[in-house]
Amino acid sequence: MGVKTGLMIVWVALAVTACAAVSSGPPAGQHHSPAKRASASPTPQATLAAQGPNGKPVIGVARSYWTGYFTTTFTEPAHIGPDNRQLPARKLLTQIWYPLAGRPAAATKPAPGPFPLLGFAPGFMQCAGPYSDMLKYWASAGYVVVAVDFPHADCRVGLAATESDLLNEPYDMSYDLTRVLKLSAGKRGILASLLDKREIGIAGQSDGGAVVAAILGNTCCTDQRVRAVAVESGNEWPPMAGQYFTAPTVPVLFSQGSADVINPPGCSVTMYLADQSVPRYYLDLFGASHTEPYWGVNGYEQVTARVTLAFMNRYVLGQQAEAAVMSKQGNVAGLAALYMNGGGGLARTYCNT
Predict the structure, then answer these.
(1) Would 351 be classed as within a structural domain?
(2) Which of 70, 130, 203, 330 is deepest in the core (most CB within 10 A)?
(3) In whole numbers, what is the pLDDT of the chain averaged over residues?
(4) 182-235: per-residue pLDDT in tens?
């Protein structure tokens, strides 16, 4: 077991003890039945905030939609992995939040699409549950949010979890996106005709951040369908098969707590400076730990959720005015600062990978 893996296991144990109310699975009252609708879940706010001039919800604006939720499991076929070893079939439990056509009820249908797709990769030994407030926030803005649980490193594996499987997880995520898009291309089911296959972004935190960083900038794993990437307290993963940042990338937002001891700021700064593409952003969260900006509802999480939504609106949806929204939401006195294109005076410091 590496030092980082040991730190993460200790961190997860402490976080679970301190945050027992935060489920590592789906929100309370919802089920893991594959491809079965679970009870719809409202956004944290009691009422919806945004309506367009015609009285309809607005894609890209938080709290425009009530949100529904369901799970499904995709079977990824056996294949040759990036290290040229044969991999058996892999089960990918997938949790999906989507916009509803009205107030939550058992018979409420999805809102009429098409909607942008936002894939999410949880951290080591995690499922989507701790991130659910942030994920529902994005779904309330008209995104279909798809979180994949990695089969050898999620919240169900326990001490058998291994970071060595990171090598295979970018492919897992791309495969998951493919299967969700296939459901949207069908004529039946919750996701039928719901997605715009041209509007895809991805985000990931911690080891999930390493997954999306590989899709962003490693020659092993690029997914040409992805238009924007949010790397949340992530890092480059040295065993990854290819090379990082040897070619231009799509727009990227790096977010990082300055007090993170699991993936120290040096990990995100290294990527931010190594990627020479424009535009790229760095959200510096002053004094934040490894998970505070992403778990539960707090000041750091609200900044991260809002800036990431504005970022996706700008570069997935093409809404140019959202660049100013990013700046406004990302520069908060005493809490956060947003830099771009190598600015910010950030120095490469220690990274534990």
Answers:
(1) no
(2) 203
(3) 88
(4) 999 999 999 999 999 999 999 999 999 999 999 999 999 999 999 999 999 999
Nearest to 330 by CA among 283, 264, 274: 283
Domain that holds residue 165: 3-340
* CA–CA distance, 245 with 247 (Å, rounded to integer): 5
For the chain, the C-alpha Rg in angstroms (whole number) is 19
Q: Specify burial of residue 65 (Cβ count, 10 A radius: 0-12, 13-18, 19+).
A: buried
Residue partners of 28: CB distance under 8 A and separation at least 6:
none
Q: Of the candidates 121, 125, 122, which has an alpha carbon nearest to the alpha carbon of residue 10? A: 125
Phi-psi region of 23 (alpha: psi -120 to 50; beta: other; left: phi over 0): beta
Alpha-carbon distance of 282 to 269, in angstroms, equals 8
**8 A C-beta contact, residue 140 and residue 62:** yes
Residue 247 lies in a domain: yes
323 Cβ neighbours under 8 A, 6+ residues apart: 310, 314
Strand pairing class (67-76; 90-99): antiparallel
Task: Choose among 22, 11, 8: nearest CA to 301.
Answer: 22
Q: Report the pLDDT averaged over residues 260-288.
A: 97
Sole residue written with tokens 């489920």: 23
Residue with tokens 């291994």: 162
Q: How far apart are CA 3 and CA 247, in angstroms?
A: 31
pLDDT digits (tens, 9 = 90+) for 21-75: 333 333 332 322 333 434 444 344 445 656 665 668 999 999 999 999 999 999 9
As for how many domains the chain has, the answer is 1
CA 116 to chain centroid:
14
Residue 345 lies in a domain: no
- Per-residue b or e along 181-219, where b marks 16 or more CB atoms closer than 10 Å to that residue's CB: bebbeeeeebbeebbbeebbbbbbbbbbbbbbbbbbbbe
Q: List the one residue out of 27, 1, 156 whose CA is nearest residue 95.
A: 27
